[in-house]
Each structure stands twice: as structure tokens, then as C-alpha cells.
Amino acid sequence: xxxxxxxxxxxxxxxxxxxxxxxxxxxxxxxxxxxxxxxxxxxxxxxxxxxxxxxxxxxxxxxxxxxxxxxxxxxxxxxxxxxxxxxxxxxxxxxxxxxxxxxxxxxxxxxxxxxxxxxxxxxxxxxxxxxxxxxxxxxxxxxxxxxxxxxxxxxxxxxxxxxxxxxxxxxxxxxxxxxxxxxxxxxxxxxxxxxxxxxxxxxxxxxxxxxxxxxxxxxxxxxxxxxxxxxxxxxxxxxxxxxxxxxxxxxxxxxxxxxxxxxxxxxxxxxxxxxxxxxxxxxxxxxxxxxxxxxxxxxx
Length: 300
Description:
Blueprint: E1 8-9, E2 11-13, E3 16-17, E4 27-28, E5 31-33, E6 42-44, E7 49-57, E8 61-69, E9 74-83, E10 85-86, E11 93-94, E12 99-102, E13 115-123, H1 133-136, E14 137-138, E15 151-152, H2 155-160, E16 174-183, H3 211-214, E17 219-228, E18 231-238, E19 241-246, E20 252-255, H4 270-299
Parallel strand pairs: 1-15
Antiparallel strand pairs: 2-5, 3-4, 5-13, 6-12, 7-8, 7-11, 8-9, 9-13, 10-12, 13-14, 16-17, 16-20, 17-18, 18-19
């Protein structure tokens, strides 16, 4: 039995003619499993076997290949690309379901976090050669089976999956009242804090990488902000879920953020926070007094 390599299988690119990196379409000998993993980003070995490749490739990033038994006449090779972490290495023996890495976004042939997953049906005792991919690769959807705790998402579920901020910011986090972020330039869809993960993995087109590529909207509600590495980040609400977006001068502008009290710097002390809250309270008192004056004048 060959299992799917992640807990939730949302296919964002199939075994088909597809190439977002060139003008001439070419064959995509894999399925791309999108970032639809609310509990774990672990990647599991799809089959029992031996690790015949574990390396970092310039295009594929962190890659692993495992070769093992398929039937009496054939072996199977499963290949995994763009991993954030590899936890097995060349020559290791692995068991189906064993954690072999973590889904990531490594390598140049990717613009968003996902797992590129291939299945090759090869002769017994076959010696791996990458150039044979066209000869032996088959659609993983026709080979793999779901285990009891695994879920296969429909196209609609994959596209509409609510993106989860990953990881949650810890530094100088602040709620925002009545805030909004207006996009006025080409802002890449970075995901806090590594500036390399796209939050819109489910249903994404890898040739798109800017906010304006994903939405007709240019103004988004903002519910939280944080400060990290001298950059302000805003948690915006979109049709595809809440995601963190960097606030960049001249490209994305944060407005209406409560009374306009600046965020405390990362590492601020408790007394600094108390002083900030007192200032914020004073600002609210002034606003309430002004509102009372307006109401009294209207009643005269």
C-alpha cells in the first residue's frame, strides 16, 4: 500500500501540462499538495523503502526520494521537493507513515509553500536517474490511498481554505480598532516572519505573487498589528482568511488604527507598556470630551 504523504491532501497543481516559470508549457510530473494543514506540516513516507536521495537542489530545494516494493515485478520511487527540513538521509531505511520532513518553500522553482510529490513505477532493482522521470512517472492520485485519519479536499475546499497565520507573531502584538490597510503598490504576499511563505497556497497560481494578483479589493480590514525586525505587520481580513502582511511605506498603508498610539518596540518593559496604555487612555478621554461637546451643541 502507498499512502498520501500529508494529513490533508489539497491539490493546487496536478499531473498535467503546467509551467508557471516559462512561456512554453511543459509537463508537471507530480501533484502539488497545498498548505492546507491546520494541525501539522509534517511530511510522511508514502512507502516502505530505502532513501536513495536526500539533498538540497538549487531548483527543488530540500529533496528526498525513497525506493521500495510496489508489486512482484515493479518497485516504486516517491519523490518529495521544497521541504523546509529533511529528517532522513541517503541509505536510511524508512517505514510508510514515518515523518521524513516538513513542508516548505525551498528552491528556486517555487513561489509558495507546498509539497511537490512524485510517484515513479520502475523495474525491480532500478538505479535512479533523474532523466528517467518522463519514462516512469505516474499520477500519484492513481497510486496512493488515504488512511483513516487523512482527508482529501475537493477543489472548492482547497480554493476556499482559510489561511492560517503561521506562526503567530509574539513581539509587540496590539489590537487595532477601526483599522484598515490600503494597497497602493506591488506588495508581495509574504507570510510572517520569514518573508518567503505565501499565505494563499490553496488554489493559488504560482505565476502570481502580489496582493493585486489575488484580489480585486485594495482595502482590507485590519484587526492586529505587530512589530518585528523594525517592520510593522498587519493582520488583514480577506476572502481567503486572515493573513499577515508587511506594512510598507508607499505600497501598503495602515490607517484608522485606533487613536494612533504607536506600537511599543520589541522587548519593551512592563513600565513602558503601562505608560503607553495611560497615553492611550488619555487620548480616548479627550475624544470622549470632544464628542460630549458636539452632542451638547446639537441639543442647544
